[in-house]
Amino acid sequence: MTAGQIAALIAAGAFVLLVLLLAIPLIKLGRTLDEATIAIRKTHEGSAPILDGANTTISHVNTQLRRVDGITVNARAVSGNVSALTSLFTATMGGPLVKTAAFSYGVSKAIKARRERKEAKGKK
């Protein structure tokens, strides 16, 4: 055996050792990828019922929103009617009520002033 052959044998052995050392992480990486694939598959299978439930929930929410929209339209109509009624009341009764209130206030002030004058004369 010559020195070249011995060197070739050592190089071949080192190459085999290198291949073995690299094979272990590659095998572990393959297992990790298999586990990741299984996890993704299970997640995909489990998400279908969740998405179906979400679609059902959204359908119910849309139904409720349509009902709320109807209620809002009716509330708008009622507030318009109340506004019209308030305007009508103000136009027909507001003026006389304000005049009556002002008159009664004036009368009470006049009576109070008269009483104060009488009391002031009585003390002198």
Can you walk through the features of this model?
It is a single chain. The protein is mostly helical. The protein has one domain. Helices cover 98% and strands 0% of the residues. It has 1 helix and no strands. The chain has one helix at residues 3-123. It is rod-shaped and about 150 Å long. The mean pLDDT is 88.
Describe the SSE topology.
Blueprint: H1 3-123
Sum this structure up briefly.
This is DUF948 domain-containing protein. With 124 residues, this protein is mainly alpha-helical. It contains 1 helix and no strands.
Which characteristics define this entry?
124 residues; mainly alpha; rod-shaped
Q: What is the domain total for the residues?
A: 1
Structural class: mainly alpha
> What does the overall shape look like?
rod-shaped
Main beta-sheet annotation: none
Q: What sequence of helices (H) and strands (E) makes up the elements?
A: H
Radius of gyration: 48 Å
**What percentage of amino acids are in beta strands?**
under 5%
- The parts where pLDDT drops under 50 for at least 5 residues are none
Helix content: over 70%
Distinct helical segment count = 1
- Which whole number gives the mean pLDDT? 88
Q: How many E strands?
A: 0
Distance between the termini: 152 Å
Keywords: Membrane, Transmembrane, Transmembrane helix
Organism: Pseudonocardia eucalypti
Protein name: DUF948 domain-containing protein
Pfam family, one: DUF948
